[in-house]
Amino acid sequence: MKVTLIANISANGKILLSENTRYQAPDIAMGLFMETATRAGNLVIGKKTFEMLQRVLPDVKGFFPGVELVLISSSGISNEFKVVGSAEEAISYLTEKGYTEIAVGGGTITYNAFLSKDRITDVCVNIHPVIIGDGGIWGTDHDLSMQFKLISQQSIGENIVQLHLSRS
User: In principle, which of 6, 43, 86, 161 could form an S-S bond with 37, CB 3.0–4.6 Å?
Assistant: First the structure.
């Protein structure tokens, strides 16, 4: 199963958090999420990311047409979308539905849930030209060691570098 982690990160490697009022990723960075989720046909996100989407989008489901949204949460935060309790449950659910790729769109807890189970095969990141002190950190498991190859790199917008890394 191909599992692609999608993120916006700062130049110092911190995950850009939606609640950070000092820096927000520009709209052009959203293209990576849309492209990856559309290709996979699904998007796995956590509770905070879902709540942020609810605040900024009048119709979350309509914003992701044809994309199955799966939420990782310990509480039933939505009756409209599938809610699971772990990365493994999300993988099982989407595998049973016939998907061959999973898009993981954040946030930090969700990224780390997949990373700690060694389930990430690809990483797609937008690197933003900012240095921040309060961003999220991925790869918090001290025993984690994953090797990737650089598949592609490109500039998007004026100052953002987009990288695609893969283990395969």
Answer: 43
Q: Is 123 exposed, middle or buried (0-12, 13-18, 19+ CB in 10 A)?
A: buried
DSSP assignments along 56-97, one per residue: H-S-HHHHSTT-EEEEE-SS---SSSEEESSHHHHHHHHHHT
- The answer for 32, left when phi > 0, alpha when psi is -120 to 50, beta otherwise, is alpha
Domain boundaries, given as residue ranges, for the chain? 2-166
Q: If 0-12 CB within 10 Å is exposed, 13-18 middle and 19+ buried, where does residue 81 land?
A: middle
pLDDT tens digits for 105-135?
989 999 999 999 999 999 999 999 999 988 8
**pLDDT tens for residues 1-51?**
999 999 999 999 999 987 777 787 778 888 888 899 999 999 999 998 998
Q: What is the pTM of this model?
A: 0.93
Which CATH class name applies to 2-166? Answer: alpha beta
